[in-house]
Specification:
Largest sheet: none
Mean pLDDT: 91
Helix content: over 70%
Number of strands: 0
Distance between the termini: 11 Å
Number of helices: 7
Radius of gyration: 21 Å
Low-confidence stretches: 156-165
Amino acid sequence: MAAPTPSKAHTTAWIGLTLLGLFFLFAPVMDIIGTHAHGLPTDHTSTFTNLTGTQFAHTQATAHGTARYISTLEYGYALHELTFGLLFLAVVIFAFRRGQRWAWFACWAVLIAAIGYSATFGAHDSTLLSRSLVADVVLPVLLVIAAPSFFQHRETAQTPTTGDA
């Protein structure tokens, strides 16, 4: 007997979460590239300026050690994001796609990071806030869309087929 086909809602959610997971990989890679090129990811410069009252280039020129420390933090932050994104994508591609219930619960953990990003970086830069809110909204919507496929009653017994070899 063939395996049951996933519902359209489950498939839609799985594809959407995969795309979101790819974004969770793209963003930290771009942050690493930006940090390498400028000492700070380009999308973090407004937040830096709004919090410190000065441009990062000024900090690099006048407080080299402080700027180097900030760059090191940015590398570390991006590597943590990249690791988290890889784990999220692995859960989505393998366990979520197969309908394993624990994966649905595990995907909610990403919301902590997404909202945390909005509350830290986004709170000081309206452009970052509007971009980050996409993940804050899309993730729970996709998980709610997929919920019935994880929690509807499933038949545990399958009827045996006769005469099939």
